[in-house]
């Protein structure tokens, strides 16, 4: 049994970790912390967990966390950065669901997150936890930076094109759409049902924190600089991200082998599903599941490759991918605890 | 491994059975029938099942079904009634999710369902599959009539009051609300997103097919005739039923022991959760789960008991309860395949 | 041109007043106040008003308000109570959309609103502004207490029955459902889209502030005490209230004349629409409009009258009814500015 | 009073025309046809129109339509094409909301709409009714082809860039999202609430009928061929389109004058609103209104211009624009009947 600690468990990522771990056969949640809600049973905040956990939120306590095998951070940025060194020293392994260890260029990190990075050595040592790219490194890692939700959907969709050098890497466009749970669970007027129900809009169109993370990942795949435009949008639903990706094929003739290329690239991946050419993945087809589902499109008179890629932002985009990383780190079946089909309808 | 057949699997109840059975350790779906979609892989219709089932819909074939241990009917009314006798003769056990075997008074059945009942002997033998009332009979049954969605939420909410004779049985009111999946998956203009999104209404307020089923169940609990008014409403969401129940307490003093009574009545029930007095159960707290969650309320200057009861109409109100019945019938742990927490948010 | 002031204009009721008044031919908004947003153009907060208003929110200023012909209060309770006397003294007329002047029994008011009433004399003088009951008094009133949203839907639905003494007044049940805009526009976690989307629940089931207001109105209609149980629910939509009302008919024979009674009662009312017997009013049929639409139902073997009554909580339940009251107070056509059909779909 | 006929009034475009015309001071609907619903009062199908229209749907009758001043076609493609010549001969003016007269290249039309065009001479004479481009021609036109919903949002967003030749016309991308009402009101399983609620997906990504219409309009603005990729998506809401447009600026220095250029281009347009640079238009800000609202964005290290453009697909994208065209054709104030602010929240 892997002994699990969760730091910062009151948000949607926290409850999603609990939901998944509640039926994971090899993991047991030993503590879940929240300064603001210390003492409250988790099932009082999240009634879907009634009968599944007796646990209450507790004040974060290094000594307690140090007795865990694995600690998940589901905190705002800036928290894991400060707590990680002590846990590392204690030999605890960490999967950080926040943004603290995702970027290697800490000047870029500081600019987008509005504070200097305090543990640059761990930022360099951290493994960016996209299993489809870094499975072997994850297996060995003590510290895994769990990818952001948008970056997961966008990178998985673009990877085969960039790895094979088939498209112009300076002209990538990622038009992404997310349900409201991506904004977390805070008393933000802009996220009221009355504000976002029955409406659709872009946000962060002049620049969003996930842009440098996307750029970093795509540059690695392309082995060189990329030019990517990323515009997120808010969808009046709770869960789900769809990213529609546009790239210019250098050789139009290559269209014929794209489908095979994608299928081949992801054949062995348990959580990436390439649908038939011309399909339209729906976010509901991954609701509650750890899949990334994608399909390719081409329009007449055009050499633009179109990829539509969907995930559940709280699962493959956060808690599910974190558990997938845990499974890899601890040598378990990678799909353990993540086998149930998505909830449709 | 229990060999499972599903008749009429293209609707929401069918896909929900598949979703649950996909990870049930003791059951294996051997065939799923649909006349209209014969030949189509189930994963083509329901992409959440990609990777979970290789099965395609097939024409219903008695010989194939006869080799199953258990057949679920997820068909419109009138179908199971005709196919059941042959399966019974073959020794197959059946859980019918349609309305064919729910009512004992076949004149009432004929009136509400617009056709004479063709297998009255089986209508009498069928066990009404509400485990909280009839667990022992279900265990022995060859034919189980799986309760309707509204009747499940309403009966479980009223049962303790009626069994103990604490309220006026002639003045029961059940104001119930359901998400849109309850209407099934047919090309019905009235169920378009454009018609029911951002709107709320009553329907069937002058009489709904679940009224006689509710009346039958409540009469059994009250051991006498009951007067019940039942008004269903359509909520602009997909899953979930909430029933707000009103009854007049005969002795106001009894208010003090109601909470204890409910907790006692359902203490051993794995799928009924009585929340603290004055709580407000949310349908999302049971989304995708097999729970019925309920709470009691009292208003000042009043002897009206208020019960709010929620279920997922596709799970405890249909497919989940059917699998619960299967577990009971085959001597399995009653919660097998039904242990995952609900999907919240 | 009626010169209008609005106190507390940043909430949903405020923007709704502006939306309606933007095209009202006889009224001109001279000032709109908000302490927290003073200086911000209203069109910056509410982009639907771009091009309609040059106005900015301003600090409340008695001198400015005193120059208006009519001041609307769209404030939390406790504000109008304190500001009204000065405006009354200045001869300004007021429509208060808050709860400050709705109840005549100020002990009850103090209990439900958690503070003593500070201007009891004006609480007595205020006219409860339900035009279908008090049109003549409204015409003369200097101070109108605009009814609450639930009380509007519930009272209009019950009135004909109580005025005619046809039902048992001690056994009234009002099961009401509202969209999320009824909770206003505050940073309340419980009203996030992530919390209430795709979910349904009761709230305030043990007692809600609109209960004494409903009781007061129904008692006046019944000319005697009434017993009413009122349970509100939250619907995952933005606008709309549906109330399903239950009452026991004293004489079952009276069913035959109920429809005619309702039609007669509301024949001359421009904003009450009695649909044919057995209809199901939808909230979308009144979205953005000032109508209350209702229909009657009866179930077999029952002497319970069922009334389903719908309004837009922000229009007939708040800003629209306030403008209707203004029209009456100033001798205008009662439908002025309120003629557009509801927005469907 | 302009005498109005509507052919094919049972869909969402039909009811929207009626909603707008109900309070238009200069127009009177004389007949509205529907073969399938002939005899049914329009208010029975659309209860928001109760009290506004006594009209019933009628069989289409050329003699009756010939007595109208203006006939709107709100029909599937192929219908207006056949009926228009007779109305033209009778001197009636027509605004066709279907696709029959939008394309000038009838081979392209035939390919996308699956039938040969039967009245090519009228296809050539028809004026494409985008007032911001063709106001003078519309004024004189006997036959106006009302633009499609996506093409309206996309063209208005791209026009200033193309007219000024500031961007590479071969690399235009339009990622567009629409509410469900765009699919009309038919018994289509794919448009059930249970299918599209709480989900998001692309559709028509390999080619959509609005692509050639967009290409035609943008080519005219660019005075030369354009390369445009257009991907529509389905949003779980009823009304609204948002289009996020991407184009490469030829001279990065031109960014500084883009905002002024857009403001200048649309300064005199009553229904186009250019928001401040970096704003995020919401579809709800135009719900029920005839506006197109847009804003510009730029990301660091990029010469991609991003435009976010929103409309209500049923208003500026259909019925509202049709009434705007009517106003122009008949010399009325162009905003007549279209002045009310959008419904927010």
From TrEMBL, chains A, B, C, D:
Residue span(s) of domain Semialdehyde dehydrogenase NAD-binding: 3-141
Pathway linked to the protein: Amino-acid biosynthesis; L-arginine biosynthesis; N(2)-acetyl-L-ornithine from L-glutamate: step 3/4
PROSITE patterns in the record: ARGC (PS01224)
Catalytic activity: N-acetyl-L-glutamate 5-semialdehyde + phosphate + NADP(+) = N-acetyl-L-glutamyl 5-phosphate + NADPH + H(+)
Keyword NADP listed: yes
Localization: Cytoplasm
Top-level enzyme category: oxidoreductase
UniProt keyword annotations, A-Z: Amino-acid biosynthesis, Arginine biosynthesis, Cytoplasm, NADP, Oxidoreductase
SUPFAM superfamilies assigned to the protein according to its UniProt record, in alphabetical order: Glyceraldehyde-3-phosphate dehydrogenase-like, C-terminal domain, NAD(P)-binding Rossmann-fold domains
GO molecular-function terms, A-Z: N-acetyl-gamma-glutamyl-phosphate reductase activity
Family matches, as InterPro entries: AGPR, AGPR_AS, AGPR_dimerisation_dom, AGPR_type-1, NAD(P)-bd_dom_sf, Semialdehyde_DH_NAD-bd
Entry EC no(s): 1.2.1.38
Catalytic site: 149
Superkingdom of this protein's organism: Bacteria
Family affiliation: Belongs to the NAGSA dehydrogenase family. Type 1 subfamily.
Summary of the function given for this chain in its UniProt record: Catalyzes the NADPH-dependent reduction of N-acetyl-5-glutamyl phosphate to yield N-acetyl-L-glutamate 5-semialdehyde.
Protein name: N-acetyl-gamma-glutamyl-phosphate reductase
Source organism: Marinobacter alkaliphilus
